[in-house]
Design goal:
Ubiquitin-like (UB roll); DNA polymerase, domain 1; 5-stranded mixed β-sheet; 5 helices; 5 strands; 36% helix
Length: 164
């Protein structure tokens, strides 16, 4: 007898339905059932931030969230941010400032700061570093990531100023 049940998730604007056990983690459902592999699984304890997605626009650790909890919520993954042909402002800044190396942590950082910069469009370096402390990177030393986030914030403010 299977404990699986039908789960419908709204992911990147699309309703996706699949069978899963109630204990299935959102990170596993995204990767295995939704075939969205940009969300990385690192520590599986919510510490490293690699699995960060947005739930209703707020950064959420998908390795600590059950997929069944997402019924009625909007999940946004890295696949919905920019395209290979047109990166988001933040992704472009990370590229230009060499704010990534192996790239394993990058999706979580991007998702964290896509939300953060909407709420805090002019963060200080200390605020960027504090927010970034929830995303572990084993390669870069963080300096170029911080520089990239500051650059992205500046460009986002400029784009908002010119649009308004």
């Amino acid at each position: 007898m299977s404990d699986e049940q039908a789960i419908t998730l709204t992911v990147n604007g699309a309703n996706l339905t699949f069978q899963a056990e109630p204990r299935k983690l959102l990170s596993d459902a995204l990767r295995e059932d939704c075939h969205l592999t940009g969300t990385h699984i690192g520590c599986e304890h919510g510490v490293c931030g690699a699995c960060t997605v947005l739930v209703d626009g707020r950064p959420t650790r998908s390795c600590l969230t059950f997929a069944v909890q997402m019924e009625g919520h909007e999940v946004t993954t890295i696949e919905a941010v920019g395209t290979p042909q047109k990166l988001s402002i933040l992704q472009q800044a990370l590229h230009e400032c060499h704010g990534l190396q192996c790239g394993f942590c990058t999706p979580g950082i991007v998702m964290t700061f896509e939300a953060y910069l909407k709420e805090n469009p002019d963060p200080s370096e200390a605020q960027i570093r504090e927010t970034l402390s929830g995303n572990l990177c084993r390669c870069t030393g963080y300096q170029n990531i911080v520089k990239a986030i500051a650059l992205a914030a500046s460009r986002m403010r400029e784009a908002t100023h010119h649009a308004g």
